[in-house]
């Protein structure tokens, strides 16, 4: 149970974020107005109280992210499962949802295929990344008219750089660099943080915050030009001043290292983006706004989360499928995306809370109709 939750716990289990709710809601981009009622009904403070009610006190880190003090998922998951058992919930593992009989789900089980006749069904089957943890997205074939194609979100990107660059610098980190795309405002398309160079390209939370806009641009134009600021805490003037203070007889590599503590991969990126024998002014200008073309995304299965899935047009305000009365959907299987930082888990919990209330309302109305 809870394999993706346990995986999230490996990096501390970032449950949610403490920023003001108005700012928080903007993180959901085009899906904000869709998810806002659910998040307001079950906001970050409610998620924190839920975890603490299971005996897992939380704290807010310096970045505003909220974590359980245990910094892992297993104690929370154990307490959660124990509570469910006490409430009489029956958990059946090794069941795969394979088809429908009307609005009743059909499962392949160790004892053969079974159809479950339910008063209401709530589906929370995840997106299509990290399939080895269970969320392979194959369920979309069972809702072909209701789903949008999956796409990677919070994913790595593939830069247009020399073929051997990644191999030579695999594992290197560009620390605290500025990233921007499209010349838009900070909240929308500008970020700052560490970038990790991998054998496939770039990864990092600062990049993930821009992933939706970058992905859409690559699909539309064939590439997206990311702009890096290799020294965001220094002004253009200060960068130039430090470069000019170095002795002319020093090599360019030494000047960049001594003046700006620029590491080897950063220096190589700068050389690739400037002419040979670049002047200090050219180096300073490029270092503060280094263009890096991105030509692809990492594989869907390696993405932290996915866009695509059940479209907003096919569910009502209770997250019930309009084509299958009594069937509700929630979590990452819905077509929304958000950056890392607590927004993903919050969105999953809030939509599940809303859908569960939808189930209760559906059952009450059904019972009233029978009476």
TrEMBL record:
UniProt cross-references to Gene3D superfamilies, sorted A to Z: FAD/NAD(P)-binding domain, HI0933 insert domain-like, Translation factors
Swiss-Prot/TrEMBL keywords: FAD, Flavoprotein
Flavoprotein as UniProt keyword: yes
InterPro entries on file: BaiN-like, BaiN-like_dom_sf, FAD/NAD-bd_sf, Flavoprotein_PP4765, RsdA/BaiN/AoA(So)-like_dom, RsdA/BaiN/AoA(So)_Rossmann
Keyword Flavoprotein: yes
Superkingdom in the source lineage: Bacteria
Span of domain RsdA/BaiN/AoA(So)-like insert: 152-305
Domain RsdA/BaiN/AoA(So)-like Rossmann fold-like: 1-357
Cofactor(s) annotated in UniProt: FAD
UniProt xrefs under Pfam families: HI0933_like, HI0933_like_1st
Listed PANTHER family: BLR3961 PROTEIN, OS12G0638800 PROTEIN
Listed name of the protein: NAD(FAD)-utilizing dehydrogenase
